[in-house]
Amino acid sequence: MNNASLTPSEQEQVRAALAYWRDHWDFECSTLFGIELEELIAVLSKWPKTGTLNKETEALAVIGSLRELLYGASTPRCELLPSILGVEYDAATALCTKVHGLYRAV
Known about the structure:
Layout: H1 8-24, H2 29-33, H3 37-46, H4 55-71, H5 81-85, H6 89-103
């Protein structure tokens, strides 16, 4: 993925989503994300400079983090998103759509 397509602020929002799930991972997350916690941590440790990561793992971690944060069964209340991502729900959903489009070819 071309992370340069995201602004520095958007990149930080993605990192915040990854960090949220690192800290809130539970027994069903591996099924929801399609990766293990260790893989999510590996993506978080390098993102957005992910040249050495498996692109599919990166896509699953990044898209899954945003998707589950916004639309999943364990989604926090919308009022909490600014404290998690630094943006309101509408901006977060726009970011999720943008990121999904960037990873679509993976």
